[in-house]
Amino acid sequence: MKRFFQIAAIVAVALCLQSCMAGKFMSKFALEPEQHGVADIERTRHKADSLLPGSTKWYDDLKAEGTLRDTFITGFRDFKIHACYVPAKDPAKAKGTAIVVHGYTDNHLVFLYLVRMYRDDFNYNVLFPDLQYFGYSEGDHAQMGWFDRLDVEKWIEVAHNIFNDDFMVLHGVSMGAATVMMAGGDPLPEYVRCIVEDCGYSSVVMQFNDNRKQSFRFIPPDVLQSASLVTKRKHGWSFWEASAAKQLEKCTIPVFFIHGDADDFVPIDHLWRNFAAKKHGYKEYWVAPGAVHANSFQKYPEEYKARVEDFLNRVHGLMKK
Q: pLDDT by residue for the chain (321 residues), tens digit each?
């Protein structure tokens, strides 16, 4: 019997060490992707043009004339973080300000199609940041929206100081969508009127578990717990606390949910969890038929614009009641 317990203890220690090693690997693999930072700018310039041709020329031309500008602030966790901002096409008649937030392994350049939509089509001022670890922002890991929301809350104040609007929309895609939903559960200034989220996940643990089942079936689900503990010790947050759905339970401002029904990276189940979680205030959703992850605009550009603009107009109408 004594021998049995000795062997069992050795096996338990070996499994624990194996789980810890797997947890360290998973945390680093997920939160420290190779594609990031200044070295990744050229790739994302090409990606921006593939999503909407001419985007980087539009960006470069406005920057050269001084209309589009860079700014840096000290963000949460004291890293230097970067954003660009540009006034509405007709500043005297600007309808508000949009903050556009990018996704995982992307940066401020990738979603220029949304910046152009807000500025050129809707006549909004736009601020579009690099989340920590990406683009020109400093950082030591991808924060998956959780601490990013605190940086976005700083950018909200910066944008308001620049443009002094009483109407602000937060629009994010993928990890950026999770970021703005997570921010939506915090107390925000009254001029932040609404959120548009495109294919955001309902929680980090659910997203990582989906990714595990898609790409790493051989890794048992309990490794997520180990990876979360590693992340908590190293970076100060856990996978379980980083939940857009839980934050949406506290959100009172209008939210427009967008998701492609062919999204196999952030499955559409995340949409329904997020939509159900928002119990207070106005909400609506659009499921884009046949759209894969972060593809709804490219598949239906005119409908995407029309639906977002209609939502913004409805929010403006709600303000007048």
A: 333 223 222 223 333 334 456 788 889 989 999 999 999 999 999 999 999 999 999 999 999 999 999 999 999 999 999 999 999 999 999 999 999 999 999 999 999 999 999 999 999 999 999 999 999 999 999 999 999 999 999 999 999 999 999 999 999 999 999 999 999 999 999 999 999 999 999 999 999 998 877 765 556 667 888 999 999 999 999 999 999 999 999 999 999 999 999 999 999 999 999 999 999 999 999 999 999 999 999 999 999 999 999 999 999 998 876
φ/ψ (deg, to 5) at 146: -70, -60
Q: Which residue matches tokens 């062919």?
A: 262
Q: DSSP states of 67-130 as a string?
A: SSEEEEEE-GGG-EEEEEEE--SSGGG---EEEEE--TT--TTTTHHHHHIIIIIT--EEEEEP
Domains of the chain by residue range: 37-203+242-320
Distance CA 95, CA 123 (A): 6
Note if the pTM is more than 0.90. Answer: yes
> How would CATH label the architecture of 37-203+242-320?
3-Layer(aba) Sandwich (3.40)
> Which of 258, 268, 260, 257 minimizes the C-alpha distance to 292?
260
Alpha-carbon distance of 174 to 320, in angstroms, equals: 31
Please give the Cα distance from 30 to 122 (Å, whole number). Answer: 36
DSSP reduced 3-state for 317:
helix
What are the structure tokens assigned to 210, written together? 């989906």
